Amino acid sequence: MPTKSEQLFEEFCDRNNVRWRRIETAEDEGEERPDYELVLSGERVIAEVKQFDPTVEEQRLIEELELRGSTGVFGGEPGDRARKKIDKGARQLRTLAKGVSPTLLVLYNNVAKLTCRHTDPYAIKTAMYGLEAFTIATNCQTPTVLERDFAPRGKKRVTPSANTSLSAIGVLWDGDAPQLGLTVYHNIHARFPLKADWVRCPLVRHYTLGAKTIGQFRDWVEI
After folding, report:
1. Residues 184 and 200 sit within 8 Å (Cβ to Cβ)
2. Is the CB of residue 167 less than 8 Å from the CB of residue 144?
3. Can you tell me the distance from the alpha carbon of 223 to that of 210, in angstroms, rounded to the nearest whole number?
4. 71-123 pLDDT per residue, tens
């Protein structure tokens, strides 16, 4: 039975004339395979779709929100749940991409009525490239910020040597119209990039990580 995110993704593809086929997995196969094979501008792209469902605590907060109209404060480490999806999704994508096809990991936030933080741009950035950190000089009377950048050991999931088979992460979203859109965050380290011009639709936007500027954190720039 398709998940909500898979149903929405198939609808998104149909609306935007994206050719797709479901990849079937035999019950006796020992490894999980990705969900879809797409054809974008004549190019084969392997896609995996995953969704964030409410945790026990989030379900409690949703019920509290519906009952009271508000909830208590809650939080967590930026990008934590997205990193877990990348860990599993990247492994599945590699099984069929074989290092020669671009890949797309699609994430859908099924907790949107409570929070957007699982798939917001900052969560995806820190999940991919790591937590952000300050370098501070303390050998002076007044501590001074020397640099802002991703922490060397900041739990990054894409590097020049890790998950280079992951071409991009797409965040699937649905609106009130009803609208269905896709925000694509490209992996700057991808061995086989997914080119933005392969899927240009009214409700699709593409971003890549901007160049480093001294003294500033790197951020997404639209392409």
Report:
1. no
2. no
3. 10
4. 776 667 888 999 999 999 999 999 888 878 999 999 999 988 788 889 999 99
